[in-house]
Amino acid sequence: MVTPRAIFFDMDDTLLDGQLAATAAWLTVSEAVGPEIGIEPERLREAIRRETAQFWKDEAAVGHWRLDLQAAREHCTRLALEAEKFDTSLARQISIDYLDQHRANLQLFDDSIETLEAIRDAGFKLGLLTNGPRDMQRGKVDRFEFEDRFDVIVIEGEFGQGKPERAVFEHAMKTVGAKPEESWHVGDNLYADIGGANGAGVHSVWIHRERLEKGDNPAATPDREIGHLDELRAALDL
After folding, report:
1. Dihedral sign, CA of 172, 178, 180, 183?
2. Residue 1: pLDDT band by 50, 70, 90 thresholds?
3. Domain 6-17+108-235 sits in which CATH superfamily?
4. What Cα–Cα distance (Å) separates residue 47 from each residue in 18, 40, 123?
5. Closest of 218, 148, 231, 145 to residue 184, by C-alpha
6. Residue 53 CB neighbours (<10 A)
7. What dihedral angle (degrees, nearest 10) is formed by the CA atoms of 217, 221, 225, 228?
8. Is the pLDDT confidence value at 123 over 80?
9. Fewest 10 Å CB contacts: which of 57, 70, 180, 205?
């Protein structure tokens, strides 16, 4: 394998712990709303989790919703309330309250900054490739001061295309001057990150954080699997 020249990263659930933020947000929101409408908080959380998982099951079919995640969340919440026979008009406010709580609880993984600094100091080019709406994702870039840590940042809502589209990876590689065989991409999403990297000829690194499973029929097969970013640094001899 050619020594990489560029390392690209996904943002959510790779560098930022979105799952932790989501769990905390739904806990807070459901405990506030549940008693008001007469539903047990755990039952409400489970209903929303169930409908959300079903909605995003076929990512290729619902990919256009990535640019309006708030609307997608409201839609899933409405389905959950409908399934549990509760007032669906509450879906909008629940989804808004969730977003506020998610922002409040979102944080970096402990190994994110030290890994980015180690890779940068070693002379590799760095890229951040993230799907989602422009304002939401750009807000995270600004909040966590990512702008100066990367040589290229590709946000779906700005670029016009998102992972797994080949153009996203080709743009990142062209910007930093790297060929596919000189590039690695690290991400948690098998469909968008791993499938996209594989399709672009980039070495795909799936980070599961010891909480994700590929399942029996994964959307894509990674070239490399890691639990945490220290394994990436070890693979790069850092």
Report:
1. negative
2. low
3. HAD superfamily/HAD-like (3.40.50.1000)
4. 20, 11, 47
5. 231
6. 10
7. -70
8. yes
9. 57
Q: Look at residue 2 and tell me whether its pLDDT is greater than 80.
A: no
Compute the average pLDDT of residues 193-206.
98
Q: Where are the domains of the chain?
A: 6-17+108-235, 18-105
- Whole-number Å distance between alpha carbons of 47 and 29: 13
Residues in the chain: 238
- CA dihedral sign of residues 36, 73, 213, 7: negative
Residue entry with tokens 């499973």: 213
Distance between CA 171 and CA 38 in Å, rounded?
51
Q: Give the torsion sign (CA, 165, 169, 174, 178).
A: negative
What was the pLDDT predicted at 64? 92
The H or E element containing residue 128 is strand 125-130
> Tokens at residue 229, please?
């970013």
Find residue 6's DSSP bridge partners.
125, 183
The residues near 205 (Cβ < 8 Å, ≥ 6 apart) are 184, 185, 186, 187, 222, 223, 224, 225, 226, 232
